[in-house]
């Protein structure tokens, strides 16, 4: 049980875009929440990656409700990861936001990491309660993700389904994932956001280069800010880097919500 006066966490399940049951964790501050933030993780990550948990904890300590969830086929969520598409991720973001609204929350803000960042930018025009957006290490071109499995792409496209190696781990994907990427224009979506937008990127990100973040920032209209870190990599796995990221994002939401 959670002690009185301390943040509380609650497991939430909801139906995702592909009708799979998705799992999330809602972090509630001890007092009435001053806003709510939805968190979307990276391509092959989960809601439990350190970046997501550190952000959720810091946001809750600052008085926000924070909801981190697993996309279809990842972490504790049901569904077949091999059938994932960016379109599916966008639908999952919308369903997660709807779940927050049904619980009496916003979302007032949203954070997307890497491909999750592309998904939140693409989903923004469908989220009428959304007031402020943050992307971390996100690509400006959805097709950029293909370099992660470039050695396996020919077999994937030939066979329709294949094992691919991403970051030293093996996953199954279907060719529909690649075909779907071409249907999305993240730059156009960034230009149409119409809300305060913070782009965060580390100079030493070797997965999604900082030029991708610069492209997103340049496309967006004011009010916007570009936050450049010398260090942090793609995952902000170092605890000090993750905490600095969390502190800066809390400050952004304090200013824009």
Helix content: 25-40%
Percentage of residues in strands: 15-25%
CATH classification, class level: Alpha Beta
Number of helices: 8
**Sequence stretches where pLDDT stays below 50 over 5 or more residues:** none
**If classified by CATH, what would the architecture be?**
3-Layer(aba) Sandwich
Count of individual domains: 1
What is the element string, with H for helices and E for strands?
Answer: EEEHEHEHEHEEHHEHEH
Give the overall silhouette. globular
Order of strands, main sheet, comes to 1-2-4-3-5-6-9-10
Kindly report the CATH topology: Rossmann fold
Radius of gyration: 17 Å
What's the name of the CATH homologous superfamily? Alpha/Beta hydrolase fold, catalytic domain
End-to-end distance, in Å?
A: 31 Å
Q: Taking all residues together, what is the mean pLDDT? A: 95
Content-based structural category: alpha/beta
Provide structural commentary:
The protein is an alpha/beta fold and 257 residues long. The chain has a single domain, classed as Alpha/Beta hydrolase fold, catalytic domain (Rossmann fold). It has eight helices and ten strands. The protein has helices at residues 50-61, 86-102, 115-123, 153-159, 175-181, 186-191, 210-219, 239-256; strands spanning 8-15, 21-28, 36-40, 65-69, 109-113, 132-136, 161-166, 169-174, 197-202, 224-229. A hairpin with a 2-residue loop joins strand 7 (161-166) and strand 8. Helix 1 crosses helix 8 and helix 2 crosses helix 3. The protein is globular and about 55 Å long. The protein starts with 7 loop residues before the first strand and ends with a helix.
């Amino acid at each position: 049980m959670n002690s009185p006066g301390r943040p509380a966490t609650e497991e939430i399940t909801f139906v995702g875009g592909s009708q799979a049951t998705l799992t999330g964790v809602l972090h509630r501050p001890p007092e009435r929440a001053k806003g709510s933030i939805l968190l979307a993780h990276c391509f092959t990550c989960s809601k439990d990656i350190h970046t997501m948990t550190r952000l959720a904890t810091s946001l809750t300590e600052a008085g926000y409700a924070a909801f981190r969830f697993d996309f279809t086929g990842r972490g504790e969520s049901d569904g077949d990861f091999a059938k994932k598409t960016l379109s599916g991720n966008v639908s999952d973001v919308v369903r997660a936001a709807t779940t927050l609204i049904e619980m009496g929350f916003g979302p007032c803000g949203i954070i997307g990491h890497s491909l999750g960042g592309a998904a939140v930018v693409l989903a923004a025009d469908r989220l009428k309660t959304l007031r402020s957006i943050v992307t971390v290490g996100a690509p400006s071109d959805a097709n950029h993700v293909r370099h992660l499995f470039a050695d396996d792409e020919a077999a994937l496209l030939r066979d329709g389904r294949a094992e691919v190696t991403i970051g030293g781990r093996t996953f199954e994907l279907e060719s529909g994932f690649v075909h779907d990427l071409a249907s999305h224009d993240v730059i156009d979506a960034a230009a149409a956001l119409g809300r305060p937008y913070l782009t965060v990127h580390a100079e030493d990100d070797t997965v999604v280069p900082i030029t991708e973040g610069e492209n997103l920032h340049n496309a967006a209209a004011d009010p916007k800010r570009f936050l450049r870190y010398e260090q942090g990599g793609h995952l902000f796995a170092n605890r000090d880097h993750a905490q600095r990221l969390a502190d800066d994002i809390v400050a952004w939401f304090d200013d824009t919500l």
